[in-house]
Amino acid sequence: MDQMTVALVQSGQTASVASIRDHAVVMDRPSSHGGSDAGPMGGETLLAAVGGCFMSTFYAAAQARSVPVEGATSRVTGVFVANPRRFGSIHIEVSCDSCPPADLEHLVEVAERGCLVAATLRQGMAVTASVTASGSPGQPRAAVPSPLTRVDRPTPPGPERQTAQRLATPTFGGTGAITS
Description:
With about 180 residues, the chain is of the alpha+beta class. Helices cover about 30% and strands about 20% of the residues. Among the domains are: about 10-40, no CATH class; about 40-125, GMP Synthetase, Chain A, domain 3 (2-Layer Sandwich). It is globular and about 55 Å long. InterPro entries: KH_dom-like_a/b, OsmC/Ohr_fam, OsmC/Ohr_hydroprdx_reductase, OsmC/Ohrsf. It comes from Winogradskya consettensis.
């Protein structure tokens, strides 16, 4: 099975440090949420991961097409929904003064199709957890239903049916938005 693993270790009372190849990423909660503010929160890191993956794909597409890119910027916005609190949609806004508008539009379309993180969020996945005792791997617990986990649910009749189907299928539209 082809896979990727990132290891995290505790740092202080509220932070974790993720070891990623030769890099370290500290994640924590802000002081206002009981943390020590040693790094961004997980949700902020998720938005950065979506944006970083998207822009990396954007840059690769520009290089492959010999489109000059200088000073490109992106802004990634997650819109919260409740029960449970999570991102209901993510929007990526890209600007690049050096790119002709038609090239910029095309590069964004290519990045939408090629970004691994966006594709993962669009399709959804099971999220599991396990416990390791004394250094031995534990058994994964059952998947925790989440907005990204496809769960068989009864579909309501009538007008609610389309809404339920739309909410059950996260999409990534041509506007640069991942929506659920």
